Amino acid sequence: MPRISIVTAAYGPTATYLGETIDSVKAQALPPGWELEWVVQEDGDAPSLAAQFDGLDFARYEANEAQLGLAVTRNLALSRVTGDLVQILDHDDILLPDALTALIPRFANPAIHWAIGQADDLMPDGSRASFASMLDHGVVPAGRVNEWAADNGGNWPIHCAGLMMRAATLRALGGWAASPADDDLVMFAALSEVVDGYNDPALTWLYRQHPNQTHKTQSWKTWGNAGRRIALQRAAAVRAAGIFAAEPVAPVDGAAVEAVEVGQLIPKENYPGR
C-alpha cells in the first residue's frame, strides 16, 4: 500500500499552535488505497511535546534531546520516513482537509517529483489573506522556478513549507541543506532545477502569521541573504554541471530504504585490510 509521510520539525518553546496543526492532520482525507504516517521530530535539549501525540497511531514522534537546528531536525525526521511521498508541514501551519487528495494524484505522472498547492496567510485575528500564484498552474518544467528567482533578486515564487515531494528524490539530493537560514530553499533550488514539478490551483494549506515564526527571529534575518545566495549558487551550479533527470525515476520502496542498518563504528586503525 502506498504511503504519504507528513514531516514536521517541532520546537516546544514556539509550538503554541501545535494543537491546531494536529487537528488538521487528523482531518486529512486520503486517496483510495493510501495510508498516512506523521513523522515528528522535536528539536531542543528539553523536549516537551511527546504527550500531544499520544493516541495518534499514525504519528511517529522522536526527540533530538539536543538543540540541533531546523535543517538537522528535518533530516533526522527524513531518516525515519517510510513513505513514497513526503508532505512538509511546520508545527504552526494547517493542512486543509483535502490537501493530500489534491496533490497525491499529481504523482501518477512519473515525471513529477514535487507538487505544491496554494496557501492563504492565516492572520493573528483568524482572518485569511489570499495571494495569486506567481507561476502558471500546471506542470513546472525543471529550472523554471530558479529562473524566476534569479530574475527577482533571490525571491522564490514557491513557498517550501507546503511542498510535497518524492521521498527518494529528496534523499538523493541530500535532504535539507546545512544553511543557517532558508535550508528549504537551498534544497528546493536543487530539486526544482533537475526535475519537473506541479503547481496545483487547489488551496491546500494555511500559512500562519505570528510573532514567533522562525523567519522573524533576528538570527534568521541576519542569515537570510546568505541562505538565498546559497540557493541561487546551488541552482546555477547544478545547471552548469548539466545535472538533470533524463528519465522518470522509478518508485522506490520507502520501507526498504528506511530499514537500512548501520553497524558498530570501526576505528580507522582497525579498518579491514589495514
TrEMBL record:
Q: Which InterPro entries match?
A: Glyco_trans_2-like, Nucleotide-diphossugar_trans
- Record has Transferase as a keyword: yes
| Domain Glycosyltransferase 2-like, chain residue ranges per copy | 5-113
A Pfam family matched in the record: Glycos_transf_2
Stored Gene3D superfamilies: Spore Coat Polysaccharide Biosynthesis Protein SpsA, Chain A
MF-aspect GO terms: transferase activity
Keywords for this protein: Transferase
- According to UniProt, the name of this protein is Glycosyltransferase
